[in-house]
């Protein structure tokens, strides 16, 4: 009896800030290294800067109507490639960035029935932004996982250019357990939801 090969889930690490002065690249690169060390997934950084997304201006989400703007369709095609998502986000006024909210709104079908996690950074590790993000993800039919990575307080100031500006290695011991737990969650749910989506496709 032979065992079929198990496809590794593809996970997008989505950089949710587009500001010229953003800090996101540093934690995103660290997070990608952690994802690549996880044997059960494949990961890729997806940068919102690389997509010339307009503000959402369709007649409806693509759950109800085909998207007309080719820039939005290019974004939908990209996120459709993945089996799960990890968002890297700061906190703006207790929520996520406008750029990230717009990117989330530009699709619906592609997000659904896939896990999502987050890494937040700032004074409270973007805790409130991540909670808001989870609520948005539920509406988009994603599966938010319990564990997240919060780069907060003294750890944030240690690596932030507003503080000591050290490499992420300086806070690795503090953050690595959370990253491992999050990617364990993501991998489990990615495999489960991949199997579920396959079963639904066969039944259709």
TrEMBL record:
Domain NADPH-dependent FMN reductase-like per the UniProt entry, residue ranges: 9-151
Organism domain of life: Bacteria
GO MF entries: FMN binding; oxidoreductase activity
GO cellular component: cytosol
UniProt cross-references to InterPro entries, sorted A to Z: Flavoprotein-like_sf (IPR029039), FMN_Rdtase-like_dom (IPR005025), NAD(P)H-dep_reductase (IPR050712)
PANTHER family, per database record: CHROMATE REDUCTASE, NAD(P)H-DEPENDENT FMN REDUCTASE LOT6
Name of the protein in question: NAD(P)H-dependent oxidoreductase
């Amino acid at each position: 009896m032979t065992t079929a090969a198990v496809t590794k889930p593809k996970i997008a690490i989505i950089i949710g800030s587009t500001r010229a002065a953003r800090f996101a690249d540093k934690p995103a690169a660290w997070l990608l290294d952690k994802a690549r060390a996880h044997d059960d997934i494949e990961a890729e950084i997806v940068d919102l800067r690389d997509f010339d997304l307009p503000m959402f201006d369709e007649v409806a989400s693509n759950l109800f109507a085909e998207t007309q703007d080719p820039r939005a369709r290019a974004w939908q095609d990209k996120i459709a490639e993945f089996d799960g998502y990890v968002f890297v986000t700061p906190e703006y006024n207790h929520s996520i960035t406008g750029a990230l909210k717009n990117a989330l709104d530009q699709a619906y079908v592609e997000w659904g029935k896939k896990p999502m996690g987050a890494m937040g950074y700032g004074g409270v590790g973007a805790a409130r932004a991540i909670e808001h993000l989870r609520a948005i993800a539920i509406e988009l039919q994603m599966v938010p996982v319990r564990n997240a990575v919060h780069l907060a307080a003294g750890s944030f100031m240690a690596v932030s250019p507003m503080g000591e500006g050290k490499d992420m290695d300086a806070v690795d011991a503090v953050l690595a357990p959370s990253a491992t737990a999050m990617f364990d969650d993501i991998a489990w749910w990615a495999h489960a939801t991949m199997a579920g989506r396959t079963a639904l496709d066969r039944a259709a």
